[in-house]
Write a structure and sequence with these properties.
The complex is a heterodimer of chains A (373) and B (156). Chain A is mostly beta strands and 373 residues long. Chain A has 4 helices and 18 strands. The longest helix of chain B has 24 residues. In chain B, helix 1 packs across helix 2. Classes of the chains: A mainly beta (373), B alpha+beta (156). Strand 2 of chain A pairs antiparallel with strand 3 of chain B, so a sheet runs across the interface.
């Protein structure tokens, strides 16, 4: 991350520069982005190249305690009326008021603190060109809503940190069989606050290890009494657990989630969908840094990785819905991530997209480059 | 004497509250250590002694995290080995894991000649990568400076 003054990794000793740093208002810019090459198997599927994400991070500290932080994203390089794809969106925009290590108050458009990728989504932080399918269809990254909450660490050297928010809820009319709750997100755009929702996370960390548990709870009915009534009518309840472990050349990560859509039957009746009453799954991923063997002195990384995902957006279905077994997905991805620095990545991978019905299966070769600063 | 020294330092560096600095010195060097301030160019170094014998040096630095300065302390013993690192003020909402003892203790016993790289000799923490790299960089620089000043006699 660089300041506008271009100071970069700034090391200053006491006393004088300290005062400058602490007292002045300061604006920081940063960013991340990724470019993808995607080639699917099958007839008439030429390779596609896409500037998938270009994100500008803009932050300003007003004083020692009060700061603004934001991410503005352009997806697919260009937005043009009447053409598919392309999006300009705020991924985050909030004010933080820091009371101490144990609590920072936050309000604005915030990231749901669920799973691994939703909050830590910069391309150099994960293997594979595309985010895992699980982090699209089960945990709908990048999931952000407007609300208030608190973040902090639990004092006493416990290694525990938390985030908890009250935000606007999902909208039942966006829920679907294939993408679960994804299009139920409101993302800060004229969002209905008819169904406030709670979301939060507790995580435990030590060097090389991070273990977290997350939740989301809230209604989806908006004003449709046929789906549910009351602020917490027709709740969606999500629980998720995740773990990351790094040791020498090895890196492991795993995430699981279970989402119960309490009145999927009413939602399906109201909106003509076949939403599952339970959406569940997860993935495990292992990686090995080949440079540990090839060039032990190097601080660069060449990670060979293998990830296996299993998830089903119709893990259970309400009465009246016939399960579509092609929604029970099994995705295996293997490939390489070359990181000349910790914040740049060149990626290549091969994905086997399978499902329990054996329908519409395909394979995808992807290449990509990503950065953050 | 400790109080006076810390007051002076406190007046000069509002970002590192004197109480926190005093607590940090007491934690690293044990209670009852005497602290004198030394100046090297514009930098303040704390000389720590007990019963008239030198037990080490300490200095406070800042390094930029994602968008806020991270205020840290580096303490060395009389043989220029790193005694401990402390995070005096952490201002950002993410990456605060660098203040955890389990992460900081990786620096103990290191010398200026040792390789200190985030993700190599110093294990990283998922979700705290920026702060891990920033603090590691800052500590490495501070350890090198303190060692050079001690060996040249600029601090003694």
């Amino acid at each position: 991350m660089r300041t506008l003054l271009g100071l970069g990794f700034l090391v200053l000793m006491a006393p004088c520069p300290l005062q400058i740093l602490a007292a002045q208002e300061r604006t920081t810019v940063g960013g991340y982005g990724e470019v993808h090459y995607t080639n699917r198997t099958g007839p008439k599927t030429p390779a596609v190249v896409n500037l998938a994400r270009f994100v500008v991070y803009l932050a300003h500290s007003f004083d020692d305690r009060l700061a603004f932080r934001s991410e503005l994203e352009v997806e697919d390089a260009k937005v043009e009326g009447g053409k598919p794809g392309g999006e300009v969106a705020l991924e985050q925009a909030y004010l933080d008021y820091r009371l101490g290590d144990w609590v920072t108050l936050r309000t604005g458009l915030v990231l749901a603190p669920i799973g691994i990728i939703n909050e830590t989504h910069e391309p150099p932080t994960f293997n594979g060109v595309e985010r895992p399918g699980f982090d699209t269809d089960v945990i709908p990254t990048t999931w952000r809503e407007i609300g208030v909450g608190a973040v902090g660490t639990i004092p006493g050297g416990s290694g525990l940190a938390y985030r908890v928010y009250l935000v606007n809820g999902l909208r039942a009319d966006g829920l679907s069989a294939a993408e679960g709750i994804r299009e139920g997100r409101q993302e800060g755009r004229q969002a209905s606050f008819a169904n406030p929702s709670f979301t939060g996370r507790v995580e435990w960390a030590r060097p090389g290890v991070k273990i977290g548990g997350s939740f989301w709870y809230g209604g989806t009915a908006d004003t449709n009494a046929a789906v549910g009534t009351g602020a917490f009518g027709a709740p969606v309840a999500l629980v998720s657990a995740d773990a990351r472990y790094d040791s020498g050349p090895f890196a492991l990560r795993a995430v699981v989630a279970n989402i119960s859509v309490s009145d999927a039957q009413a939602i399906n009746a109201a909106y003509g969908q076949s939403v599952g009453s339970r959406i569940a799954g997860g993935y495990v991923e292992g990686a090995y840094n080949l440079l540990r063997a090839l060039a032990p002195a190097s601080s660069q990384k060449l990670n060979a990785f293998l990830r296996h995902e299993r998830y089903d957006t119709q893990a259970s279905v309400p009465a009246g819905v016939t399960r579509d077994r092609s929604l029970a997905r099994r995705i295996t991805t293997f490939g390489l991530t070359y990181k000349p620095t910790w914040n740049t990545a060149f990626k290549g991978d091969y994905r086997l997209l399978r499902n329990a019905a054996g329908a519409g299966e395909l394979e995808v070769l992807s290449l990509g480059v990503g950065y953050q600063f | 004497m400790l109080a006076v020294a810390l007051l002076l330092l406190g007046a000069q560096s509002p970002a590192a509250p004197p109480a926190k600095l005093a607590a940090s010195i007491a934690r690293v060097f044990g209670p009852g250590a005497r602290t004198d301030t030394l100046r090297v160019d514009t930098v303040t170094v704390l000389r720590v002694s007990r019963a008239d014998s030198l037990v080490g040096f300490a200095a406070v630095g800042n390094v930029l995290g994602k968008d806020q300065p991270i205020t840290f302390l580096v303490a060395i013993d009389p043989t220029d080995r790193l005694k401990d690192v402390d995070i005096l003020v952490y201002r950002e909402p993410y990456g605060g894991e660098v203040a955890y003892e389990a992460w900081r203790r990786q620096f103990r016993g290191k010398s200026a000649g040792d390789s200190l790289r985030a993700g190599k000799e110093i294990r990283s923490i998922s979700g705290a990568t920026i702060s891990v790299h920033a603090v590691t960089h800052g500590v490495r620089q501070m350890l090198a400076d303190l060692t050079a000043w001690h060996r040249s006699g600029a601090i003694r």
